[in-house]
Amino acid sequence: MERNPFVLNFGKVPKQYISRELIIDEIVQEMTEDGTQNNCFMLTGTRGSGKTVTMTAIEQQVLESDEWIVIRLNAERNMLESLVGKLYDSKEFLTKFVDANINLSKFGIGLNIGSKSPVADIESALEIIMKEIQRKNKKLLVSVDEVSNTPAMREFASSFQILIREELPIFMLMAGLYENISDLKNEKNLTFLYRTPQYEMEPLNLTLIADRYLKLFGIDQESAMNMAIITKGYPFAYQAMGKYVWEEKNHEVTDTVLAKFDEALSHYVYKKMWSELSEKDKWFMSFIVKKDVTPVAELLEITKQKKNEFSQYRERLRDKGLIDVSDRGIIKVKLPRFDAFVKSVSRE
Fold this sequence. Notes:
Layout (H helix, E strand, L loop, with lengths): L20 H12 L7 E5 L6 H12 L5 E7 L4 H12 L1 H10 L20 H14 L3 E7 L5 H15 L4 E7 L1 H8 L12 E3 L5 H12 L3 H11 L3 H13 L7 H21 L3 H10 L4 E3 H8 L3 H13 L3 E2 L5 E4 L4 H10 L1
Parallel strand pairs: 1-4, 1-5, 2-3, 3-4
Antiparallel strand pairs: 6-8, 7-8
Helix pairs in contact: 1-2, 3-4, 3-5, 8-9, 9-10, 10-11
């Protein structure tokens, strides 16, 4: 039996996925062209919106050129030490350079050079290594997934800013939840992040989703579009719907498929999102999910709330990726079958 091409693992590139080619091409082009104006880029969106897969696609495209070195870092660890250590292991010319010129024994990196004093400052060591990368006509891309406002991330961002001012060939690609990226940008010493291009993972095109389903399952256009509409263009939902319809004998959206679909969304995404909401956030969402599209005036009338009281919750729910408020005076539910999830948790 042919293997199911859809997967629910976060970060793993599925066999069947819809690439965000416009975002990928724009970022790669800006990083690779001469005289680029930006050295840092941000990908934001909710859980399951395709941030990590898009980041991986950018890394892979950049690595097609021999002039690039790509290093992935963890925002929870000492990022400067991790970067220097991974650079030492990444390329033979860097290993030889460090062993011959820099004593990094204090950090457990490289050979212990008796004739040279150990480097005390890891930031200085990174700058020396970056100058060697520049001398070799190479460029470095540092990617950081699940970015949050950690001490390690703040320290690294400050050091990155210094390296940029030195006109060294280093680039950074960050991916994270909107509120975490926003929190980091609000740090007083990291105002350069406000000038950093930020790309939000918008819903996938429903026509593209329907076309993929139509070709893969051999179903008619109407059935394929109905499946796409259920997903609302949410990348994780696209995978979940495909996975369970694939397993269904006649490739149809049955009650069993919908039950599995709802459970997957709840287990992998919605429960975590819901746990991060305040009780008042949850209260407002219990009214909002009753309709896909709700005028703000109607919501305020139902809830007996004043407009200025609701505004802070509207912004919070928007930043959490739960609602779309791009149309003035209108609230749209962004996530597929979130009403079914809210009903299920209210019964618990």
